[in-house]
Amino acid sequence: MLRDNGLFIAFALLFLGALVGQALTGVAYYNDQQLAENLQPISVVRYVTSSSFAVDVAENWQSEYLQFLLYIVGTIYLVQRGSPESKEVGEEGLETDEEQKVAEHAEPDSPRWARIRGFRLAVYSRSLALVMGLVFGLSWLAQSIAGRAAYNEEQLNQLQDPVGWVRYIGSSEFWNRTLQNWQSEFLAVASMVVLSIFLRQRGSPQSKPVGSAHEATGVEG
Questions:
Q1: Same domain for 1 and 66?
Q2: Are 43 and 67 found together in one domain?
Q3: pLDDT digits (tens, 9 = 90+) for 147-199
Q4: Residues 133 and 196 in one domain
Q5: Are residues 41 and 65 in the same domain?
Q6: Are 93 and 139 found together in one domain?
């Protein structure tokens, strides 16, 4: 079980470790600010249930899922010659039913929803992008709600009026937090696509075989 699911387990543990680390360092930083302003420090439990912690987590989640959503959808129609992250040039599009092994072309071990034409096949054929989009949308909504609460807390501490949700999502504070995450995600994807044309990592399915030509496209190690 550990061998068959090692990749997921490893990254799940890394995620939990990073989240705990973020909570511990976050509450320490928050309490430093509280003490500097002659306010009472708070406990870890109170911090991880606060809007400050929620907005920091949600803004990272929404940018990550947006990255994957755009990458999943973008690689249907866009190609990059020489990249293992791309389909071969000329193979853009949704592909044929035979290539996708759906309906009458399904195999005995194909998922049940892939075997029958209709609504279920249409949904299942897009299920990965739909779920990624749903998680992105919910994370973005959570970020906007928690961000507004954290922003209004600062406003009240400075004896200024709080703002409504609509006004907050149109504010420079919200979009500054959002875009600084988006730009890093887009840069990471662009770097991976281009660098994998010329550079190799032996044994990784994200890389071409070490001896493959730079022009080889859609070939994984």
A1: no
A2: no
A3: 999 889 888 877 788 899 999 999 998 999 899 899 999 999 999 999 999 99
A4: yes
A5: no
A6: yes
Domain count across the chain: 2
Confirm if 58 and 146 have CB atoms less than 8 A apart.
Answer: yes
Structural domain boundaries enclosing 155: 58-221
Smallest Cα–Cα separation from 20: which of 55, 47, 1, 59?
A: 47
pTM of the model: 0.86
Q: What is the pLDDT of residues 73-94, one digit of tens each?
A: 999 999 999 998 888 888 899 8
Do residue 134 and residue 66 come from a single domain? yes
**Residues 6+ positions from 185 with CB-CB distance below 8 Å:** 63, 64, 66, 67
Q: Is 196 exposed, middle or buried (0-12, 13-18, 19+ CB in 10 A)?
A: buried
